[in-house]
Design goal:
Layout (H helix, E strand, L loop, with lengths): L2 E2 L2 E3 L2 E3 L6 E6 L2 E10 L3 H18 L4 H30 L3 H21 L15 E9 L2 E5 L7 H12 L3 E5 L5 H14 L6 E3 L4 H10 L5 E5 L2 H14 L2 E5 L4 E5 L5 H13 L9 E7 H16 L19 H17 L2 E4 L18 E4 L6 H4 L6 E7 L2 H9 L3 E2 L1 E5 L3 H10 L4 E4 L15 E2 L12 H4 L1 E9 L14
Parallel strand pairs: 1-5, 7-8, 7-10, 8-9, 10-11, 12-13, 12-18, 13-16, 15-16, 18-19
Antiparallel strand pairs: 2-3, 4-5, 6-21, 14-15, 17-20
Bound molecules: NADP nicotinamide-adenine-dinucleotide phosphate and magnesium ion.
The site of magnesium ion has 7 residues, from strand 4 and helix 2.
């Protein structure tokens, strides 16, 4: 029997108002139903927003360090439940247990950071330019935050948004991806157990159109924080423009790893395998392009193909598995369509390029790790986000060409360069257009306390992670106190 899951609205676990439901299945074994979830709609969103607005009146007045104390309990409970929920996450979205544990650990790290940062939500106070006057700079919460998240980091991404939003004194309406609603439900259970006021956190299950759109349009939501694809991000930004909501967008990537002739090739190989095929290529920071300098191109491609063929596909719960399935059938079809596009464009397929259906694999959405060589800048497989285990290899003459190729996309999330030459590394650090650059490391592996996000179409200028996430969820407020007992006019009484 599949587990029944519920919404959490207005302090209670409940069904959708319509009574409708949807199923969530295991992408490694489509016969396995993980759970049945409420398929919510506008009415449920209305109730959730009302609850969050009501809770905001009191929550904003709780001292931030006390809100942070709840985050410490969140971290404690998360540590206890790590293994159980990581296993559920693997069943729900397919990536291997090692990675779901990492995803979960990022949530723990974010809770620990939030605990500490709750005691630091202050700003610098500059002196007033007038005598007997003081300017006090504070940060205040904004109100109700709408959180809309994707399925590829079912725990880490919601925590990046919800923890700073709550610690800053906002209340939350949370719509997780309908592909990973079970992990999201566990997170809400943990927040409640740790002591977040029940009406301050509302969980509304459903799809982008049934729940996401009503949230974005809702006048009672003050901030939307969204992670997902560029087309959806664009439509959300347009809708938020109409109601002048603050909106933070973390969108796609077409990340590249450069390997120069002088690089440590064994290290670069480990990096690209992890970057391209970890999470089955379904990370916003996945390595989907490999830019090789001509002197090592052929040798490195040989090493890469040999290692790629050894990767073992399977259920992410099995310790022998390196690469899990894609998230669903539609995703696998999309990947396969791009493989066809790559062939039609004249790129050369040297491994993979097909469904993996041997034995047990036939029950899930498996796709063989795929590599194209002779990929030319501008080809669609070189420009568009495929979000699967497909790597495009591009040959270049030198560092300048490598950086030009790397930069020539609409995205700018992550990037990487392998070289032993300190001058080349520093030029790359300066000239690469991306929010994140790794030197001698793969394009994936961000740490929770560093700013995270990208340039160009990857986002709209916000950063999650660390202290920068708090800028999304707070407003600056300045209070001037004049204790001189007379009217003092800035810029006038003290004019030069
Ligand atoms: P998606 O299709 O854009 O969906 C993301 C979320 O938005 C889901 O919860 C989805 O709901 C919801 N949604 C869909 N349409 C909506 C609409 N019109 N209005 C409001 N909400 C809507 O993205 P995805 O396929 O889940 O995730 C993959 C994408 O996320 C990739 O492009 C990847 O690069 C990006 N990503 C970016 C980052 C980053 O930090 N930059 C991190 C991870 C992923 P349902 O799916 O339930 O319908
Ligand atoms: Mg699923």
């Amino acid at each position: 029997m599949a587990d029944r899951y519920l919404n959490f609205i207005d302090g209670e676990w409940c069904e959708a108002a319509s009574g409708k439901t949807f199923e969530n299945r295991n992408p490694a074994n489509w016969d396995e139903v993980i759970g049945v979830f409420p398929l919510s709609g506008r009415e449920d969103v209305d109730r959730a927003v009302k609850s969050a607005r009501e809770a905001f009146r009191e929550w904003r007045l709780v001292p931030a360090p006390q809100r942070g104390r709840i985050m410490r309990k969140v971290a404690d409970i998360m540590i206890e439940r790590k293994e159980e929920i990581a296993r559920l996450m693997t069943r729900e979205m397919g990536k291997v247990l090692l990675e779901t544990r990492g995803d979960f650990q990022e949530g723990i790290d974010t809770a620990v950071y939030a605990t500490g940062y709750s005691r630091m939500l202050f700003a610098e106070n500059p002196p007033s330019e007038l005598p007997d006057k003081m300017g006090i700079v504070t940060r205040v919460p904004i109100g109700v935050v709408g959180v809309i998240t994707p399925w590829n980091f079912p725990m880490a991404i919601p925590t990046w948004k919800i923890f700073p939003a709550l610690v800053s004194g906002n209340t939350v309406v949370f719509k997780p991806a309908s592909d990973t609603p079970a992990t999201a439900t566990k997170l809400v259970e943990i927040l409640l157990e740790a002591g977040v006021p029940p009406k301050a956190i509302n969980l509304v299950h459903g799809t982008g159109s049934t729940v996401g759109v009503p949230m974005v349009e809702h006048p009672g939501i003050d901030v939307i924080t969204f992670t997902g694809s560029v087309p959806v991000g664009r439509s959300i930004a347009e809708a938020c423009g109409r109601t002048l909501k603050r909106v933070s967008l973390e969108l796609g990537g077409k990340n590249a790893q450069i390997v120069l002739n002088d690089a440590n090739l064994d290290l670069a190989l480990e990096g690209v395998l992890w970057g391209a095929f970890g999470t089955t290529g379904q990370r916003c920071t996945a390595t989907s392009r490999l830019i090789l300098q001509e002197g090592i191109h052929d040798r490195f491609v040989d090493m890469l193909v040999e290692a790629t063929k050894k990767l073992k596909l399977g259920d992410g719960l099995l310790p022998s598995t390196d690469v899990g399935p894609l998230i669903n059938e539609k995703a696998r079809e999309k990947v396969h369509r791009y493989v066809q596009i790559g062939k039609d464009e004249g790129a050369r397929l040297i491994t993979g390029g097909e469904f993996a259906t041997d034995g047990e694999l036939s029950r899930g959405w498996f796709y063989k790790p795929t590599i194209f060589v002779d990929v030319k800048p501008g080809m669609r497989i070189e420009q568009e986000e495929i979000f699967g285990p497909v790597l495009s290899v591009i040959k270049v003459k030198d560092l300048d060409e490598a950086i030009a190729v790397l930069n020539d996309t609409e995205y700018g999330l992550s990037s990487s360069i392998y070289t032993q030459d300190v001058n080349a590394a520093f030029r790359a650090m300066r000239d690469i257009e991306a929010g994140i650059t790794y030197v001698n490391g793969p394009t994936i592996g961000a740490e929770a306390h560093f700013p995270f996000g990208g340039v160009k179409n990857t986002g709209n200028g916000h950063r999650e992670g660390g202290w920068t996430a708090y800028d999304i969820f707070t407003e600056w407020k300045v209070v001037y106190v004049d204790y001189s007992g007379k009217l003092q006019r800035a810029q006038i009484d003290n004019a030069e």
